[in-house]
Design brief:
heterotrimer, A mainly beta (97), B alpha/beta (225), C mainly alpha (112), A: 97 residues, mainly beta, SH3 type barrels, 2 helices, B: alpha/beta, Nitrile Hydratase, Chain A, two-stranded parallel sheet, 4 strands
Chain lengths: 97, 225, 112
């Protein structure tokens, strides 16, 4: 399985509602972050939650988001960031191409 | 209902327990809903009758979990502080590094993140309560509660301040939201003034809260060596 | 709290970034009752039993009625979700569970 995104690449978290078990927090949907690490392929938790096999596996990425871009009026330091582990089917190229 | 009391002063630097009465449970320590108690017992009995597990399995699982505690995390940290090769291995492949301490992470993948002079790490699971249980045991009640899960990502410095932790702006705060199957533990900075200390002495500085990243490791008090 | 509610996909559990109260920084240790519930989930989730994946259990927590999610304590939620999951997977039937609960209630026993 070839990762669609590379370390250092800017990605946008998909902005969509989805029923079922989802491990993409709403506060990150639609946000742009940078791939910090390609974590590898894992069984799909959305399928596992329904008692299924978790296939196809999903590539997992550690993505970093500057806090000041996530929260209006963020009061911490400019270098503060937030990192989350997100599955490839919840990510898009930053510019949508 | 009895209450195991794993409170120790290590989690509350400066919090002295002498004279502290534990006879009155706080509001959030209320007895479980009797309907839920019935449900749990009914379920447990049925699962035992169906051979899913035995009462002995439950007892042993409880003992196993009790043996897992922040003390193990503290040992790992103290070793990392004193053994550069171990620290490198820990940061690269934590699961295999911790096997030296008899810790089996199972299917959970442990990632150890290092605090530095420029970076302070803090761990949360906003969606539920993911935590490196195989190493540290049961997470603290506040970690699983709404206040922490909602605010740690949005106002980490405010939450840190509630734990008595204030970091200068030159230290970036990085919050890790454990959204997938990777579990995080913080490698706190080694406190100043601990040169030459034994691993056992260093362990006593490493609190559970510092492994989650809501505090730093305990500072050396001003006493002479 | 009815166990026959339809599944709610409210994402109520998705707390990140919501306004919140101050953190109660003093942890209360897990009681024996809570430790037992914890142990039961560990046993059920053991891959050797081939019974459940943790994601299935999380889904039960996520589909709990929001008012129950708020009202119940952490481990009370676990009992609720474990029960629903065991019924959903056919390990126990709702009838069996209801009958045992009724019997225990009639016996008036709340001993552990």
């Amino acid at each position: 399985m070839t990762p669609a995104y590379a370390q250092g690449q800017l990605v946008r978290v998909s902005l969509r509602n989805q029923a079922g078990h989802v491990r993409t927090p709403r506060y990150l949907r639609g946000r742009v972050g940078r791939v910090a690490r390609i974590c590898g392929a894992y069984p799909d938790p959305e399928r596992l939650a329904q008692g299924e096999l978790g296939i196809p596996y999903r590539m997992l990425y550690r993505v970093a988001f500057p806090q000041r871009e996530l929260w209006p009026g963020y009061a911490g330091a400019a270098a503060d960031d937030l990192v989350a582990d997100l599955y490839e089917h919840w990510l898009e190229p930053k510019d949508g191409t | 209902m009895s209450s195991t009391h794993e409170h120790s002063t290590r989690d509350h630097p400066g919090h002295d327990h002498t004279g502290h009465s534990h006879s009155e449970p706080e509001a959030h320590e209320r007895e479980p809903d009797p309907e839920i108690v019935l449900r749990e017992r009914a379920l447990r009995e049925l699962l035992i009758e169906k051979g899913i597990f035995t009462a002995d399995d439950i007892r042993r699982a409880m003992e196993t979990m009790e043996a897992r505690s922040p003390a193990m995390g503290a040992r790992v940290v103290a070793r990392a502080w004193t053994d550069p090769a171990f620290k490198t291995a820990l940061l690269a492949h934590a699961n295999s590094a911790v096997t030296q301490f008899g810790v089996n992470m199972g299917v959970a993948e442990l990632t150890v993140v290092e605090n530095t002079a420029e970076l302070h790490n803090m761990i949360v699971c906003t969606l539920c309560s993911c935590y490196p249980r195989a190493l540290l045991g049961i997470p603290p009640s506040w970690y699983k509660a709404k206040a922490y899960r909602s605010r740690a990502v949005r106002d980490p410095r405010g939450v840190l301040a509630e734990f008595g932790t204030v970091l200068p702006a030159e230290v970036a705060v990085r919050v890790h939201d454990s959204t997938a199957d990777l579990r995080f533990m913080v490698l706190p900075r080694r406190p100043d003034g601990t040169e030459g200390w034994s691993a056992e002495a260093l362990e006593r500085l490493v609190t559970r809260d510092s492994l989650i990243g809501v505090t730093t490791a305990r500072a050396v008090d001003g006493a002479c060596d | 709290m009815a166990e026959d509610q339809p599944l709610h996909a409210t994402a109520h559990h998705d707390y990140g970034g919501q306004p919140g109260e101050p953190v109660e920084t003093c942890a209360h240790p897990a009681t024996l009752w809570e430790q037992r519930v914890d142990a039961i989930l560990e046993l059920l989730g053991d891959p050797r039993r081939r019974l459940m994946r943790v994601d299935e259990f999380r889904w039960m927590n996520e589909t709990m009625a929001p008012e129950d999610y708020e009202r119940l304590s952490y481990y009370e939620r676990w009992v609720h979700s474990i029960a629903r999951l065991m019924v959903r997977k056919g390990v126990v039937t709702q009838a069996e569970l209801d009958a045992r609960i009724a019997r225990l209630r009639a016996e008036g026993s709340d001993a552990p």
